[in-house]
Amino acid sequence: MTSNPTLRVIYNQKGGVGKTTLAVNLAACSARAGLRTLLVDTDPQGNSTSHLLGPDAQPAKTISDFYESCLGLNLFRQSLLDYVTTETGVKNLHLVAADRQLEELRNKLENKHKIMKLRDGIRTTSYDSVYFDPPPANDFYALSSLIAAHEILVPIDCDAFSVRAAQDIFNIIREVQADHNPELKVVGMVVNQYQKGTKHAANIVNDLRKLGYTVLEPFIPSSIKIRESHSESCPVVCAYPEHFVSQAFAALFQEIENLSGRSPSIIKSRKTNPRVRELTVEG
What we know:
- The chain has helices at residues 19-32, 47-53, 63-71, 101-111, 117-121, 140-148, 160-179, 199-210, 224-231, 236-239, 244-259; strands at 6-10, 37-41, 93-96, 129-133, 151-157, 185-192.
- By secondary structure, the chain is of the alpha/beta class.
- The two termini are 25 Å apart.
- Strands 3-2-4-1-5-6 form a 6-stranded parallel beta sheet, sandwiched between helices.
- Helix 7 links the parallel strand 5 and strand 6 (185-192).
- Helix content is 41%, strand content 12%.
């Protein structure tokens, strides 16, 4: 068991802000840095699962199976680690996959008050880092992820709705902190799809900072390579490790680790065929 694992949730109740892209690529950066990393997909849409395993993948075990076991009359605490898929194509990166069955389970889990089961299921872990990718909603699965995590990153894109939605997001976070998880720490907001040089984007960032929100740097720029990596079912930092968007993810990961009090050396992957997904650690 890792003595001090980092449990980190990527959350915004607004969709279309690059939440899954951020979760998958930060988890891949973590694995690239030599940290044994687990990505937990708690979204019924299963976007992180598709991103890593492909759209037609049918993993033998999913988080639905974990929750099904929580609904039964079990004498022992259920471990989320019994439902891990290890073959993601990225060295050191494992996955708890999601599927559509989560939709059918939601009401049963809510009615039986199973909101703490995800936290209990990951309380002891051999992983160095765990990332949660919940749905863009204020629902059972999102709240379960917020309760299970130690840290939260809030992805945003630079539109007017981001400023308006920020207050709602942080109200949800404060409620979870007060009622269930006082240890939950906001690391900061992450700007996705940033259009460098545009006055509008700069104004949105400035407005958020004036309101007292921590906006992390570097910002993640827009790039067609991100969409290409989705179609290839591979994190962009693995598919195109030398590309500027991958370098932005790597630098952001380093900054987040620094703020969290854990600062691994910046790891450079060796140059490989862009479609080779396994990264190696130098030194």
